Structures are given as C-alpha cells and as structure tokens.
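Hey, I'm writing a tutorial for new members on how sequence and structure tokens pair up, and I'd like a real worked example in the thread rather than a made-up one. If someone can provide the structure for the chain below, I'll link this post from the tutorial.
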Amino acid sequence: MKKSLVVALCAMVSVPLFPLQSIAGPIETACLRSGRDAANRAVCGCIQDVADMVLRGTDQRRAAKFFRDPNLAHSVWISQKPSDDAFWDRYKQFGEMAEAYCAAG
C-alpha cells in the first residue's frame, strides 16, 4: 500500500505544471516557416486543424511542400495521373475549407 502511494505521489510530482505545447503538424510548420505576413500561430494552427480533418498524413506532407515550392503545386495540378487528380481534389477541398474556417474576419 505504501509503495503504491509513493509511486502515485511521484507520478503527480512529475506531471508538468504547465500545459504541454502541442506538436505542430506539417502544414502548420510549413505555414509558419513560409515568411508570409499573415502567417502566425493562430492562422497556421487553424489551417492545420482543417488539414487534420480533410487530408491524410501523406497528403499533408505533400501539400506542405507547396509552401516552399509553389511550382510543385502547379505540376500536380496539370498532371494527368489519376493519383495526382485524386490528391488535387482532396487538396482543393482542404483549401476551400481552410479559407472558410480560418479567414481573418
């Protein structure tokens, strides 16, 4: 009994007193590093939240590259590959939702 109490007390003491900062996803990270004037933690975090709702992890990592290289997005958009078309449909939905949810009002 005493051993259980000591373990529980140690666990309570080791729990941080401050809330843990969430780990940024690939879209949020790319957004924050983009250097755009409107890129801030609130906007980029909102965009990441939408990405989490709409895009798979692989889609998020792929879309994050568009922040560094917009020509890559154009290449995917004009591609004739069915997999690129399917990705683009998901990416377009993501963009529309992000604009609706995260636009500065």
